[in-house]
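Journal club prep — side note

Before the paper discussion, L.F. wants everyone to see what a predicted structure for a comparable chain looks like in token form. Sequence:
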Amino acid sequence: MSLERKDKLLIGLCIAAAALVVQLFCIQVSDKSSRDAASNQSTVRVPIYPNRGVIRDRNGKVLVGNKLCYDLMVTPKTIGEFDTLALCRNFGVDSLYIRERFKEYRRNMRRIGYQSVVLLRQLSPEKYTAFAELQAKGGFEGFWGQARTIREYPYNAGGNLLGYVSEVDADYISRHPGEYRPGDYAGRTGLEAAREKELRGVKGEHIYLRNSRNQIEGPYKNGEEDVEAIPGKDITTTIDAELQHYGQTLMQNKVGSLVAIEPATGEILALVSSPGIDVDQLADIGSHYKEIAANPYKPMFNRAVQASYPPGSCFKVVNGLIGLQEGVITPESCYPCSMGYHFGNHKLGCHAHRSPLNLEESIMMSCNAYYCYVLKALLENRKYSSMDESMKAWDDYVYSFGFGRPLGSDFPAELKGNIPTPEYYNRIYGRGHWKANTIISISIGQGEIGCTPLHLANFCATVANRGWYITPHIVKDSEDISIDPKYHERNYTLVDTTHFPKVVKGMYRAVNSGFGSGGTASIAAVPGLEICGKTGTAQNPHGADNSVFMCFAPMDNPKIAVVAYIENGGFGATWAAPIASLLVESYLNGEISEERKYLEKRMLEGNLMDRVRIRK
């Protein structure tokens, strides 16, 4: 080999050696990620669960808070012999449960490895402290406590409304990739679910160093790389806790809902679904879930936003307003009633009252025949070329009040209800084979019309505002939370605002005319409050009629609009009107007058559960 060739080979070897040295230096000294990867093999990462955001009412009262608890964790790979009976006595659990869990750990040891798993959940600080004292005496190596917070409910207001928090399952984790791990908790219903992202906060972690025997020796790097948890954001709701609680009390032993809105803001003051979930059950939902789910009255079903009911006679106000806008009636227009509306061999019945009536009187007395004539005039209006066209115009008016679609509230699972269309009737009867009298029941809020109590409460707020509403919502702007701008915007109907005072007068007289003067809602009158209301008795194929009432007060500059919907309650004035008016009186006056205590007592003691036909 020539000298020149030897030199070249030597130079090449030197370059290769130098490159190897540089690479080793980078790996061992400079490359932090490689060092961290190696460190990860000898560290244990323990999550720090953040405090979930607190939920308050509009006046600052805590509706949902937090309290400390512990999960008892075990690392099966490091467990030695321990006193099973002492453990069971401390926590009040069956020894069979503990033995079965450890059998399961042994069967799955290869999969579990050196991971820690939850043995017992949501232990009180007192029980965990007692165990820590027991552990200090020795014999419980491999057991440790994971601190976390769980929900507590200082005030019994709005179980269905607030919703519950529970541990995520595999399905929930798969639907939220990268956000949750086994052992995490999330809001599953109600406000807890709707505002999960803001309420949950961000997890932190402690990093501990472990030795070759997988024993924790202390904090990694003295805790310098630990990550602090970020607490969830607090939420201020629009709910008035006192009003919500009183509404729930009035609705005990009744099936239905009660909704109250502040008309000027669209803020929901109370949203009651009955029967509902008690907050004591929410606090320990795991123990009560089967019982709640098996209840035939479906307490987890929020009737205020998820049940579609016929609005009954409350809907007459809608048709009256459309009639005014379309010019087919004026406030002075009178129609006769002979115990109902007669067409051909058919009759849509009505109760006894004087006849004929004008618009204001028709609302006051809730005359069925009047609104049959109004609907007939609307659908047979010659300005439209066909029944399809006039029906489409009617639909557009009704949609503008918020019916037939989700209102867009910030409450989850809101139902859209149903407003019939010409296309629907064409499918049922055939094009050209139906007319106003064919579908006359929609004139009084029956037939194919369906809406939620929230829809009806929003409509009542619209009338109170004389033609506009703000989308109902349940979360207020606060330091931590900014709500969607749409919850500050007015939504105007297609009916001119000048027409609304004409129906408001009728609603005022329905309540304030006095018994025997024709007002169907005189039982709802409260001196000095100027309540304006409309009764409804909605036909129900599943038993007795539903009792319905909507009202607002005072007549000018209204502060509250309320809808009460009582399943199988009969006439609107029997149950719904008293309950709604008591809620209004409580909110505006702060108490129930002595003169109406008898009414409050009757509503509180009333039990209508045996009237409700259970649908399996």
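L.F.'s comment for the group: Residues 32-41 have pLDDT under 50 and may be disordered. Keep this in mind when we get to the figures.
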